[in-house]
Amino acid sequence: MRRQDQPMLKPPRSDRPGEIWMCGNAELGVPCTHGPTPDGRCPGHGLCQPAVNSPTVASGSISAKCTRPTCHGGSCEIGPTIDGGCGMIPKPCRPVRTWYGRRRKARNILIAFGLGLFLVALGSPWRREFLAPGPLAEPHAQILGGALHNDRCAACHPAARGRLAEWFGTGKTGHANVTQSQLCIDCHHAVIQPERSLLSHNLNSDELRLVASRIRNGEFTWRDSMPSPSFASDDVQCATCHREHHGKEANLVWMENTQCQTCHKDRFASFSDGHPDWEQWPYGRGGNIAFNHTTHQQQHFTKGGKAFDCRSCHTVSVDGTIDRVASFEVACASCHNESLKLQLAAGAELLALPTLDIDAIRARGQDPGPWPEKATGSEPLHMSPLMRMLLVSEDSTRDAIEVLSPHLSTAWDGSPGPEQLAAMSTLADSIRRLMRGLSDDLHGELSRRLEVSDAPRFAGQLNPQLLTIAYERWFEDQSTPSTDQAQLNQRIPMMRLAMRSDESVAADPLLEDLLDDPLLESDPLAEELQRPSNGRDKNSRFDPDTMLPDGGWYCDEVRLAIRYRGAGHVDPVMRALIETASSAQWTEDQRASILAIPAVAACMECHPKANGATPLSWHSLRRDSDRRTFTKFSHRPHMNIQGLADCTHCHQVGTHTTVPTEYSGSSQSTFAVAMPIDFLPMQKQTCSNCHTRQAAGDSCTKCHSYHVDPPL
Amino acid sequence: MIHFRTRRTIGLWIASLVGALAFAIDYWFRSRLGNAAIFSGATLFATLLLLVAIGLRKRLVMLPLWSVSSWVQIHIYSGLFSLVVYGLHVPRVIANGMFEGGLSLLFLTVSCSGLYGLFVSRTAPRKMTSVPGDYRFDRIPWHRQRLAESASDILSSLDASLASPVLATYYRDNLQPYFASRVPLAFLAVPNGIRRRRMLSRLAELNRYLSEECRAAAGQLAALVRTRDELDFHFAIQLRLRLWVAVHAILSMILVIWSLLHVLLVYHFL
Q1: Whether B254 and A231 lie within 8 Å, measured CB to CB
Q2: What is the pLDDT of residues A205-257, one digit of tens each?
Q3: Inter-chain contact B97–A245, Cβ cutoff 8 Å?
Q4: What does pTM read for this prediction?
Q5: Could you read off the pLDDT of B140-198 as tens digits, one per residue?
Q6: d(CA A149, CA A127)
Q7: What is the DSSP letter of A21?
Q8: B113 neighbors B248 (Cβ within 8 angstroms)
Q9: Chain B residues lying within 8 Å of A132, measured CB to CB
Q10: Is the dihedral of CA B179, B184, B190, B193 positive or negative?
Q11: What radius of gyration do chain B's Cα atoms show?
């Protein structure tokens, strides 16, 4: 028999797929037509109210008819009872859920479960962990690991402070105005200044403008038309770049190259394609020691037959970094020590009595006071820069010096006029008072006259007794000179003049030979100079070259000066003198006069940036690794590559020096002071050969820092 | 009326274009160091609301809101688009964190169920058409009961003097449990004809022991076995469709609720 031939009953049309409940007898094939109530109860619509006819008189029986409606199943087989009631016994079914009803129940249960799970998690003690969008990066995780649950989120998120009910309330907590970035800075204030934390590159607009002016814009490309940043340059929130909750191993400082270029006017494809050339980088970024690589390599070392080896000065330290410069003793002393000692032996004068025409002053009836005969004459005035700086603190003396200034270095053209003689008298008096003040209270007098709080350090080794003795000899012990002595006194100024005309002679050892010359045997001056200096003969000449080989202060009786003889490299007095001269209170002329002293000039030849404000300006130390600049570079990983260990692979000495264009004309550059560049420009290709995306990497952050320290 | 293939092509093109537009906008946000997650998250949440709107459309039949068929098309391609936006919003398979990880798991589950539904809604009708019969899911138990009663009637209608005990025994031991049983889970998972073939082969083996009348009755029982098997097949396929719809809809509702909570949290911490 084929199944098509199998007679099949038609299903009842009482199913309700859209209802929640259906009759429990549906599967038996006898569902009620009314179906269950909406709340799933069987209404029990089985009974009817039979229609009763009039009772038969004869029999007395009641005739009744079933009135069960068709919608309830029609007339039943049992029919009414003999008393006219419904004969059907009600059998309520047990309604069952339809598919829709079961599905709806499952939906409600699962939605309640999902919502309940969220609420339970929210009410649990570990709700912060539940809501956290991901693990913190390792540094933050370590710091916050010991914090309480409730404090962990609130450490960075002001919104997490307060109770859970306050999160979505309208009332604001006491931390309403605290931003997330401020909480970042609360911990990172040691490396980022709070007031600069939201500035682009932590630089203000003027500093940014200065940096931008040093960047050469390249060709215009379509990348330059890419969107501008979504924030103002003075409102860069920390989370703009540093996205947390990306896992323990996440790199918080990682940035895409396109993101780095968002704010930049000139954008390019990659390091090898479009990145500006180095131009002068890494040269011309400062450095305190003037050293000409070109002349040393091509002249001095060649003549000396020495190999110009970079590593002899720039040694590699144990940690792989390269010293910026070697010490003087290691790198320079072998060639420059003797000549430097010779230059510094000339020293500097604290005081030197100028030659004044005292006789002419007295002839005019004025009393200039005691003044040594040796310093009397009509020769050109000479005044040491230091003494002049000390004297100008008095107004009257300043005026007198102004009057005499045309004759400080040139001879008198004729006799001094009344005004000049009066000025000389004033000057003589001022010098005496200066010497008296210095001999009485050296440091106090210097501080007062130089208008500084502390005594200048250059006088630290100066013995005040020396000044006292000098004062007594020059101004108080004025015995009447003998005829010979008078003649000698007439010649000494000539000798002093000759010696002053050539500063190098003063400390020249050959001067001894000159004084030993037989031709000078009959010269009283020679006898005066050759007299042994035993400390008792006040006219004997103190020989600093033999008596002060390691430098020191002394009294020069020939020049009537308090002088200092330099010892050599790292001479403390010369250093202090230069630092004092760099003080901002001095005029350019005064500073120039100090720096013009030959011994000082010898120092400044190699230390052009030395000053008192920055003690480290004497040294060319390794660049401060803690100080963050826009560009960072480490030699260490490069030294492991064969070929790069040779310094000249990247750094080639040029044939001439150039002044960095960026810094020319700006001695007060914000970032660095110009130093001549004596290297050939580095080629970008030298780096880009290896620094590609596939090889050594070409991300911006590999060589550049976003957070930079403000300019000094 | 638009041809099915044309409609699919148009839908794919529109979804691709909107996806590319979302990708471009997201890239634009990222390029200017903006908060691209806000854009992708808002787009994803709006897409989720659009996806669940098909359920409302089915209930609001009185409103002129296009046909359900059009809404199904919108639902399908919006679902594909939401996968693209999810990729932008959560640049990894499963997001970090317990809550957001659960949310992304929920999204992926709903998405997978949607893709499965796309497959099953295209293949199930063809399968059911290939098998005779037209049964409504809610009436299948009734049909199953009727088949069992028919088998019992066939046995009871046999003349007791001519009936073979072999057929009665076979009915009692095999056919009656078969007609009375519910559909096995293995059959629901993978509908197959193993049980039917086993029953029919055994019935065929009984033929040599049966009289002519009993052989006719055995033929009727075999027809009932085939009908029952077809009924089970329809039940299995329809149950599959209905289960998919139920799981997809319920998880979608939970997904929307969790997404709303996620939006509130993000808004609070933004």
Answers
A1: no
A2: 888 888 877 776 677 777 777 777 878 888 888 888 888 888 888 888 888 88
A3: yes
A4: 0.66
A5: 888 898 899 899 988 888 876 666 688 888 999 999 999 999 899 999 999 999 999 99
A6: 9
A7: E
A8: yes
A9: 97-99
A10: negative
A11: 27
